[in-house]
Amino acid sequence: MSLELFNTLTRKKSPFRPLEAGQVKLYTCGPTVYDTAHIGNMRTFIFEDLLRRYLTYAGYKVLHVMNITDVDDKTIERAIREDRDLQELTGHYTESFIADLATLNILPAQHLPRATEFVAEMAAGIETLVQKGHAYATPDGSVFFDISSFDGYGQLVNLQPDQQRAGERTAEDDYGKDQAADFALWKAHKPSDGPYQWPSPWGPGRPGWHMECSIMSTHFLGPHFDIHCGGVDNIFPHHENEIAQSRCLFGTPFVETWLHSEHLIVDGEKMSKSRGNFYTLADILDRGYSAAAVRYTLLTTHYRQQLNFTFAKVAESQKALNRLRELARRLEQASDGAGGEEVPAPDAELRAALDNDLNIAGALGAIFGWAKELFGRLDGQTLGPAGARAALEALRRYDEILGCIFVNEAAGDAAAIEALLKERNAARSAGDWARADAIRDELAGQGIILEDGAEGTVWKRG
Ligand code: AMP
Ligand code: ZN
C-alpha cells in the first residue's frame, strides 16, 4: 500500500502522489504571534511534524514553509492595548514560539516568512485581483474579494450558493460560515490601528490575514503545490479564502491535498486564548512533566480525532516513553559482542499503519508488540548481541518519526537548567567566555532564554 491521506477538499482518503516525483511541497499555517502559543496550537504543529517526518521517512524530500502572522487584527489590537511596539511584541512571541518548537523537538520549517516582510508583494497581488475583476476597492481605501466572481467559492467547506452573501461585506479576519460574504484583502488604516500602516495604491493600510498566506505559500512553493495544513478552525474562512484568492490570482490549481487536525479540547471545549482554558508548554513543564511526554501526548491520538487534555494522559505518556527508553538501555547493554539471531522488526506494520492516513496508534501498537517480545528475550537471555544491535537500530529509525525516545531528557528540566546556569556563572567568573557562550547556546536550543541583570542571571522559558 502507499500513503493515503484524508483530503478535506474531496472529503475522502486518497493515495498521495506529489506533483514532482520524490519531492513534497508543504505549507503549514503558523502562529499569530500576539501571545504565547498554547498546547492546543502545539497539537496542530506536532501533527504537521509527524506528517513531515513520515514523508521524509518514506523517502520524500520535503520543502516545508510555515508563516508567522505578525500583523493582523489581533497583533495590532494587543500592541495598542499594551502600548508596545508591534515589531517588539511580535518579535518576542516569535522567539518564544521558535523556542517551544525546539523544546518539543518539532523540526523547524526551511522557511519561516513573517507577513510584514511581504506586504508589498501582497499589495501587488491584490492589484492583480482588482485588474482581473475579482476584487473591488471601497471609498475608504479598503479592497474586498468578490466571492460571486469565483465559481469554486465554498468548495472546501461545502457552502451552497444560497448560503453565500455575495455583495455583502465582512471586514473581520475571522468570521462564521453564516457570514460568508465578500472579505477584506486590504484594510484601510483607521485611527484605532495607531501607527501601523503600509502604503498601497488605495492609500495606507494593511493586508487581510488570508492574503498573507496566499502570498507567502506561493512565493516559496509556486502557485500549485502538494499539501497545505492547519487546525480545523482554519478551514473556514481562512483556507476557503486562500483558495479563492490564489486560484483567481494565478489562474492555476492551488493545493492538491488539504489536511486539518482536530482540536485539543479541555472539558469538552476547544482550548483557546479567548476561552481562557489553555496551558502553555511552560505551564506544563513547570509542573514537572517532561517536554517529551507532552510531545508524546499530543502526537499519539489520531489527528482527525479530538484530544481531551488531562495531566493523567501526560503521566501515562511518560510511562510509555520510559518503557521504550528502558528497552533502548537494555539493548545497548546487550549489544557488545557477536552472534545471535535477529528478531524481525515491525517496519512493514509500522509503514502500513502510517500509510493509512497516519494511523499513529497502529504504528505504536506494532512498536510496543515488538518491544514486549524483545523484553521477553532480554529477560530470558535469548537475544544475542547482533539481535540487540539490530533492534536498537530499528528503535532509532522509528524515533526519526516519533521524535521523543532518544532526546535530551534534561531539556526543559528546571534542575538541569539551574546546574548549567551555575556552571555558566563559574565560567564567567573565571573569564571563560567561550564556555559561558556555549552554555547559553545549549540552553537556547532547549528553549531557555537567559537574562543577565544587576541581580545576576535569570532564566525563563522562551
Ligand atoms: P493561531 O495562532 O490562532 O493562528 O493558531 C495556530 C494554529 O493552531 C492553527 O493551525 C490553528 O488551527 C491551531 N489551533 C488553534 N487552537 C487549537 C486547538 N485547541 N487544538 C488544535 N489546534 C489548534
Ligand atoms: Zn494561514
Word description of this protein:
This protein folds into three domains: 4-261, 3-Layer(aba) Sandwich (Rossmann fold); 285-402, no CATH class; 409-461, no CATH class. The mean pLDDT is 94. It is globular, with a radius of gyration of 24 Å. The chain has helices spanning 39-57, 73-81, 86-103, 119-131, 209-221, 235-250, 281-286, 291-299, 311-333, 347-355, 360-379, 385-402, 414-429, 433-445; strands at residues 4-7, 12-15, 23-28, 61-66, 135-137, 143-145, 165-170, 181-188, 205-207, 225-231, 255-261, 264-266, 269-270, 307-308, 448-453, 456-461. Helix 9 (311-333) runs antiparallel to helix 12 (385-402) and helix 13 runs antiparallel to helix 14 (433-445). By secondary structure, it is α/β, with parallel strands linked by helices.
Give the SSE map.
Elements: E1 4-7, E2 12-15, E3 23-28, H1 39-57, E4 61-66, H2 73-81, H3 86-103, H4 119-131, E5 135-137, E6 143-145, E7 165-170, E8 181-188, E9 205-207, H5 209-221, E10 225-231, H6 235-250, E11 255-261, E12 264-266, E13 269-270, H7 281-286, H8 291-299, E14 307-308, H9 311-333, H10 347-355, H11 360-379, H12 385-402, H13 414-429, H14 433-445, E15 448-453, E16 456-461
Parallel strand pairs: 3-4, 3-10, 7-8, 10-11, 12-14
Antiparallel strand pairs: 1-2, 5-6, 6-8, 8-9, 12-13, 15-16
Helix pairs in contact: 5-6, 8-9, 9-11, 9-12, 10-11, 13-14
The protein binds adenosine monophosphate and zinc ion (ZN).
